[in-house]
Design goal:
alpha+beta; six-stranded mixed β-sheet; 8 helices; HU Protein, Chain A; 3 domains
């Protein structure tokens, strides 16, 4: 189960403002690359975090993200975040420092004000992922060295002969061993440096959290599935055994007396020869409350008909390896709370599809 600190860190990578209800909010500001001429260091661009204790109203971003990652409803997610906030306040009131991994530390000053110090070793700017500090020779140091050389008077009485350039035999065992070590180190470092830049920038690893073997292939291109109605042969489609995958605890018994022919195309959309005037739609609004997943099209249609008879705006949502049945949709958190309460009162429990 994902913690609240991990969810906050994930949100700061994609958003410029993240609010912890009843505690305060983080405001991110992008900072361009800077040059320290005295020390000879170039700092890459980054994202600096500021903490505002007045941002205490719940905007629903953290609560919805926590519920989506942990597959719980919105109300339980709000309770978990309230417990985290109370524990954070108790630690600060006790005079202790509280550290959020990769984010920073909190403490109270003498006037009981919340002070925040960002963790400088983690960069929240995705465009600067993998970039490190670059050192160079400072101009001020070189000028000081030149002035020191001018101050020294060197008297040359005899001509100075240039030393002979040593001849290195690359076939000698000691030199060849060193050369092999350098080549082996470069062969190990170059792929690591390349994929540390390629995978987070050119793939969807950070958003999805899943990595595949195709992400290591720079020349791989995902192909979209093509469907041609003229080539579909419904007579060659095999009937699937009716199997119930997921449904609410108090859902009515499903009737499986009428078999249906179905097949699946590349984008995971289910095409059925018997749909009972129910359309398979894509995601309609910001939130869909899914109460059942089936491998059988007949079971999914029966559940949709039962939900519609009870007054719900039920539908089948396209996508995924299973047929997902939504009991309704909502455009904001208030509508979603009302839908979840109504579903629970009817005995239907599910999960939120964003």
């Amino acid at each position: 189960m994902f913690s609240v600190e991990e969810i906050i860190c994930q949100l700061l990578l994609r958003h410029s403002c993240v609010i912890i209800p009843s505690f305060g909010g983080f405001v991110a500001q992008s900072v361009s690359a800077t040059i320290d001429k005295e020390n000879g260091i170039i700092y890459p661009p980054s994202k600096h975090l500021l903490f505002n204790k007045n941002l205490i109203n719940n905007d629903g971003l953290l609560t919805a993200e926590y519920a989506s990652f942990n597959r719980i409803n919105y109300t339980d997610s709000l309770i978990k975040i309230d417990l985290f906030t109370n524990r954070l306040k108790a630690e600060l009131n006790a005079g202790r420092k509280v550290e959020l991994p990769k984010i920073g530390t909190f403490h109270l000053d003498l006037e009981k004000n919340i002070c925040f110090e960002q963790n400088r070793y983690f960069n929240f700017l995705l465009n600067a992922y993998g970039l490190a500090n670059v050192q160079f020779v400072s101009t001020t140091k070189t000028q000081e060295q030149l002035e020191d050389k001018k101050a020294i008077n060197v008297e040359v009485k005899y001509p100075i002969e240039a030393p002979e350039t040593p001849i290195i035999d690359i076939n000698s065992p000691k030199k060849s061993r060193k050369y092999i070590k350098y080549v082996a180190a470069a062969a190990c470092f170059l792929p690591i440096a390349f994929y540390s830049f390629w995978i987070p920038v050119k793939t969807n690893v950070i958003n999805s959290g899943v990595i595949s073997i195709n992400d290591f292939n720079p020349f791989y291109k995902s192909k979209k599935g093509l469907y041609s109605p003229s080539k579909a042969d419904f007579n060659s489609i095999k009937f699937e055994d009716v199997s119930y995958v997921a449904a609410p605890a108090d859902a009515p018994e499903l009737i499986t007396s009428q078999p249906s022919k179905e097949f699946q195309i590349a984008d995971n959309t289910i095409i059925s020869s018997q749909t009972n005037n129910i359309k398979i739609t894509n995601k309609r609004q910001n939130f869909e409350y899914v109460v059942g997943c089936f491998s059988s099209n007949t079971n999914a249609l029966n559940l949709v008909n039962n939900l519609k008879n009870q007054g719900f705006d039920a539908s089948i949502i396209a996508g995924g390896n299973l047929i997902r049945v939504s009991i309704g949709c909502a455009s904001n958190s208030k509508e979603l709370d009302s839908l979840i309460q109504l579903s629970n009162s009817k005995g239907y429990q599910g999960w939120i599809l964003k």
